[in-house]
Each structure stands twice: as structure tokens, then as C-alpha cells.
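Deliverable D2.4 — example input (C-alpha cells):
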């Protein structure tokens, strides 16, 4: 089990005060799936290839193209992007609700052991391994362990078939599939699959345990709301799979729903940072919500909720006043950080983003 810290000391989160232009181009020129092309593995990056911040380089794997995203925290801790998207930030536990995943920001990203993807978290937790929607423990601070028998990389490679029309639906047991921009979705032995392998329940186990890890049990998969994937769990509740994570939802709708959320820092900071002496209601950053119809809007106050499943000692440090995240505590200890979940909801569906606010 990989655990997460909500309170992180200055040694791990020294502020980066680089000007915005230092980050220019890191996300530009993303080339989609053409590095793999035609279902061939010939362009997959060799084992040992790695990424650190800042970089415009990429790693190509059977999952697609990995790149360096925006900073999550100081000391170069970044969001890893898969095919241009932040992914797998939450798990949704029946009876408990939304919780943070094992991995939000990473120091390094590697491909190793035959094409598996390994983020380096920190010296305490070492390496994890990405496995279709989840982060699985897979090493110590010095080793990236090869998984036990059973773990495979995706068997369906990009470029994927055309996206299925809205209102396309499958119910298990079935061999039929539906397609989104993330690939080909199906149901195997009652579990949700993507591109030929099961979607795992995030923040789960380690890759030295017996395969398979816990999956996501589903009855039905539906494409709706401009190509968005909705999965009905076996308890009859629904999840929206935007960002390859089980976002809470009331179910399929033809109305646009959130599929991404961006938190933009203020001033010259490249991450969400405020002085530790900041008064109440100091602006930390602004939010923008991308909807499934392609529009980008600032969510209203009633559409945003902040949660912290780790129980930060002083409670949540921020609140939302559209379009901004603002402080709601004073007297923070210098060099600490608060990590929490932002949940943005519209038309019955939520998208969840994990952020970290640093008190410099």
C-alpha cells in the first residue's frame, strides 16, 4: 500500500520562482499517438528512458505518449501526462467516497522492465508502477521491480478506432466494446477494461503480489455527452471515466459535463504558492473547467467542493470564491504544504483534481 502525505516539509517542497517563460514549450507540440502508429511496438521507448521537469521530451509506451506536465509541488515535482492529460488522481471507494490516489506529482518518470511505466515518488515511498488507471507499489527508493506474472501492457495500441456515437452502450457479460479518445472499453469477468487490460482500483497493492490487483466491477458502459465514458458499477451507481479515474456521476447525460480542471497559479509562481504570512482570502490561483463539448469556463461557487481525505492538521487551508482558490487560514508554518481534492460538478457529473498549495 502506498500512502500519501498531506503535510510536506520544506526539504521536499522548496519553492520554484522561475519566470513563466521557463515553462514555455514544455506542453507545446504534443504529438498524440503518432509515435506508436498502426498498432506497432517498434517506436516504443527503450527501457531506462526517463523524464524530469522541465522537459519537452516524451516517453512512448503501449499506453501512448507520456510527457512532463505542470508542477504539482516544488523541487521539480510534476504531474505526469498521458496523451496530454493528467490522469488517475483519485479512487472512489464505496461507502467512503472520493480519496486521493497514491500518485499525483512525481520527481521522475521511467519506462523499464519491458515497457512498464514507473514514477519515482520520493525517498520514503520510492517507485510505483502505472497499470491502467492505477498506481501500484513496485519498488523501494533504489529499485524498479518487474511485476509478477500476469501483468501486461495494453494489447490494443493507438491509433484507436473512431469514437463510438453518443448513446452507444454495452452491458455485461459481453464481448462487445465501445471506443472513446482514450481507447477501447469493454467488460471482462465483470471488470472494466481499457485497451485489452483491466482498469485497477487506484491506490492498491504492489506488483510483487499475485496478479490480478482489484479491478472496477461494472454492469454497463455508455458513451454519452460528446464521447464521454460513463460506467455503471455493480452497486448501480455511476462513474465518469474522464482522466482515467472514477469520477462521481449521476449517470449518462446529453448535456456537457466536466472532463478536466486546471488550477493556474498567481503571479510569477509556477505552482500554487502563497507566503505563509498571507491574510485570509489571499488568492492562490484560479480554476478553469473544461467541458465535454470543448468549452472552458470558470466554475461557479456552487459547482466546486474541496475535500481532504488525509485530515490535514488544521483542516482545509483554502476555499473557493469563483474563479479563485483563496486562503481560509492564517498562521501557517513556513515550508509546509496542503494537498487536497478539488471537485467540480456540472449536470450531475464531477471531475476531480488533486492540488498542493505551498506556504513559502
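Example output (designed residues):
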Amino acid at each position: 500500500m502506498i500512502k500519501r502525505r498531506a503535510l510536506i516539509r520544506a526539504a521536499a517542497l522548496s519553492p520554484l520562482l522561475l519566470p513563466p517563460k521557463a515553462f514555455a514549450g514544455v506542453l507545446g507540440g504534443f504529438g498524440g499517438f503518432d509515435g506508436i502508429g498502426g498498432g506497432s511496438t517498434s517506436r516504443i521507448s527503450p527501457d531506462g528512458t526517463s523524464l524530469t521537469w522541465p522537459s519537452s521530451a516524451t516517453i512512448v509506451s503501449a499506453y501512448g505518449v507520456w510527457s512532463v506536465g505542470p508542477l504539482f509541488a516544488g523541487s521539480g515535482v510534476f504531474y505526469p501526462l498521458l496523451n496530454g492529460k493528467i490522469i488517475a488522481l483519485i479512487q472512489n471507494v464505496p461507502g467512503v467516497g472520493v480519496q486521493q490516489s497514491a500518485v499525483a506529482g512525481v520527481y521522475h518518470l521511467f519506462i523499464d522492465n519491458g515497457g512498464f511505466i514507473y514514477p519515482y515518488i520520493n525517498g520514503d515511498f520510492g517507485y510505483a508502477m502505472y497499470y491502467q488507471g492505477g498506481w501500484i507499489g513496485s519498488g523501494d527508493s533504489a529499485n524498479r521491480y518487474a511485476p509478477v506474472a500476469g501483468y501486461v501492457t495494453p494489447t490494443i495500441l493507438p491509433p484507436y478506432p473512431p469514437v463510438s456515437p453518443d448513446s452507444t452502450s454495452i452491458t455485461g457479460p459481453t464481448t462487445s466494446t465501445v471506443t472513446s479518445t482514450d481507447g477501447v472499453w469493454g467488460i471482462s469477468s465483470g471488470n472494466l477494461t481499457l485497451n485489452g487490460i483491466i482498469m485497477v482500483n487506484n491506490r492498491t497493492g504492489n506488483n510483487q503480489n499475485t496478479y490480478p490487483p482489484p479491478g472496477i466491477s461494472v454492469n454497463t458502459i455508455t458513451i454519452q455527452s460528446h464521447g464521454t465514458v460513463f460506467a455503471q458499477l455493480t452497486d448501480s451507481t455511476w462513474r465518469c471515466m474522464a482522466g482515467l479515474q472514477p469520477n462521481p456521476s449521476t449517470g449518462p447525460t446529453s448535456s456537457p459535463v466536466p472532463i478536466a480542471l486546471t488550477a493556474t497559479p498567481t503571479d510569477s509562481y509556477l505552482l500554487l504558492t502563497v507566503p505563509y504570512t498571507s491574510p485570509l482570502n489571499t488568492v492562490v490561483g484560479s480554476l478553469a473547467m473544461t467541458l465535454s463539448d470543448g468549452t472552458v469556463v470558470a466554475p461557479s461557487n456552487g459547482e466546486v467542493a474541496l475535500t481532504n481525505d488525509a485530515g490535514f492538521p488544521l483542516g482545509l487551508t483554502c476555499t473557493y470564491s469563483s474563479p479563485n482558490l483563496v486562503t481560509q487560514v492564517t498562521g501557517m508554518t513556513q515550508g509546509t504544504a496542503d494537498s487536497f481534492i478539488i471537485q467540480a460538478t456540472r449536470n450531475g457529473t464531477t471531475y476531480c483534481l488533486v492540488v498542493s498549495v505551498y506556504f513559502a
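Residues 1-40 have pLDDT under 50 and may be disordered.
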